[in-house]
Amino acid sequence: MKIPTGWEQFFKEEKQKPYFEELMKFLKNEYETKTIYPPKENIFTVFNLVKPEDVKVVLLGQDPYHGYNQANGIAFSTNDSKTPRSLANMFKELNNDLGIEHPSNDLTGWVKQGVFLLNTILTVREHEPLSHKNKGWEIFVLDLLNFLEQTNHNVLFCAFGNNAYEMYSKITNINSQDILRFGHPSPFSYERYFKNTKPYSAINNWLIEHNENPIDWSK
Fold it and tell me: Which residues are responsible for catalysis (predicted)?
């Protein structure tokens, strides 16, 4: 496994823990025997796009898209020209909030500005959502969130849905003022809990209050 540049300290610590060794063994077997997304070389894509000290916002999802050519290692983002429903709802609210039409389904531009788009579970079997739940990814992500909170004290944790909020609540010494909570953009909760919540302007307002440059959500 090639460690992403800038994340050496974090990965060095995780690789020494028993859960990580078990997780890597599990994934090796899964990729050899089943169709798993994202492709193995893309699991840590988001880490390769931004260094820990440049992370300004963590936006946590659940697990990757489980269809062909969808998951690309960046939560919510996809290389596919067909827009997944959750992402379509995110774009709908972006337009409602800031009047922005995002040009593509690729959210690399957000990550490069410091929006760390991360799933709670980083891999999934084809057409089997949550199939890699409780295999070790949740421990990895919680350790990562603690690492980011300690490394970069000026970071906002943005929760889309209850799963993300529950994960954030486990961060050691987390300040509740550093968490913004919204509903999930999935079709099941969009109308009731996500529509008209204006998360993008709320994130930018928080960043400005903390002397950080706001995100250009059009990129």
Answer: 63 (proton acceptor)
